[in-house]
């Protein structure tokens, strides 16, 4: 890290200077962000997630920003904040929502991003814009490829490589041209002790979690690939990752899609809001990619490089049509925690019931055995 990063207030950094001189971000003062967001008032709030609340704002020079006000941090997390900010400051890609800046005042940690006028993919698929049907087929294809390219960059091109861990529709933001920008990479580690982001996430977005991550906390790039597969299916079909059926039963998007894929009824999978205006071969290809991505065994999933190759029609892996889509069976108690079908942003979770990130997940994803043997020296080896 450059010695100029003054998150703890010990060193002075000139505003307007990014690390290495090539980053467009700068340091904001708390006063400036307070003024830009009208005192972080309720009307400016865009939403609330696992790390804090996000507010719309306008700086004195007219730039529209989104300010994420993180929940209080402990001293250990403070250093991690600085490291993460430095990493995020280096990331530059057309499909990633990079940093515009940050503020590390005495008690506050705030991250500043460019404001995305079309908000999130979630708001268009299931939220406030859902009725307007602005997502035609061409835009959906652009969103699929763009978000895949953003992830490819994180997994394979930036150093150090970054695993997102929270790919979902609310973390795919849309600019004025509906170009997707993947947001919130890198901050998954910034969870103050005792606060379980996993709890929050399960309550809102269980359906995106790869089984090996939900059960054993095994994190790798292929967890993101799994989540991307669910996101892609959601984008093509307009269905939520987990739906609540009459009678309170919950069904995952893969469970819903499987019988139709099996019978080759691809047209029935397309979002009815498209009114039949879609390219059938692209739809099939997209479903095929999703089926490859959501395989239970992480080793079988393609890399994001392969996913991008298939989406562009270059990779031969995409030629073999998957006639089955695997479905994770989340346990009933986990399903009960999922509020994705009732609430859009995971608001209303009870932090007092927060527990360790992975401990309570054991036995909640049924019918799977841990294929990994863990040794005392930290090695993890796959059986067989
Ligand atoms: N730059 C931005 N422009 C416009 N809307 C944004 C921006 N950043 C975040 N939002 C919106 O603000 C809301 C809250 O975002 P936040 O990232 O805190 O929560 P989340 O995405 O629901 O969950 P997570 O904490 O897992 O990322 C979301 O609806 C998100 O789409
Ligand atoms: Mg987010």
From TrEMBL:
Region entry Disordered, spans: 336-361
Pfam families linked: PK_Tyr_Ser-Thr
Domain Protein kinase: 40-314
Molecular-function GO terms, alphabetical: ATP binding; protein serine/threonine kinase activity
Keyword line: ATP-binding, Kinase, Nucleotide-binding, Serine/threonine-protein kinase, Transferase
UniProt: ATP binding residues: 69
Sequence similarity: Belongs to the protein kinase superfamily.
Record-given protein name: PTI1-like tyrosine-protein kinase
Organism (species): Actinidia chinensis var. chinensis (Chinese soft-hair kiwi)
